[in-house]
Amino acid sequence: IAQFFFLYSTFQPPPPFSLSLSLSTARTHNTHSPHSQGRAGPTDDDRAVELLRNAAGTGYMNAQHTLAMMLRDGRGCPSPAHSAVGLPAGDSSGAEAGGDGGGGGNCDREALKWFLRAAKQGHAGAQQMAGAHYEDGRGAEASDARAFKWMRRAAEQGLAVAQASLARCGRPPP
Fold first, then answer.
1. What single-letter DSSP state applies at residue 35?
2. 64 with 114: CB under 8 angstroms?
3. What is the pTM of this model?
């Protein structure tokens, strides 16, 4: 009985399923996929984006930010031959992001959409990236006012890269 008690008291249950675990699995499990053999097929990035879209759609800001980062890098993004992603009609971020009329490609517009959704929830990294997209005109028309708005919010949370961006523009960080 003492041996059982010792084993039971030192037992540590496995960590709960997490999005990061499923993403790392999606990125590494498919070494023999048709895509890796030169044939068309889904990629690990496609699977990761699929998982992230599901989580981001529920409002999970970290998934929204990670999805936006992948799309910004062109990973898991539809080819230009596919229909435009744009922003859904009636989406509150659509007016700010400029909808289909903004600059950049489909990936840039969709990335900005997800950055804005996470930024509005207070994600400092997403706020900084939304500011950078507006500054560069990626996914929407360039707007110094919107770039400053989001950079300032990120800088107020202590994000060093946003503070440096504000200082570089001659605007003191908060």
1. G
2. yes
3. 0.66
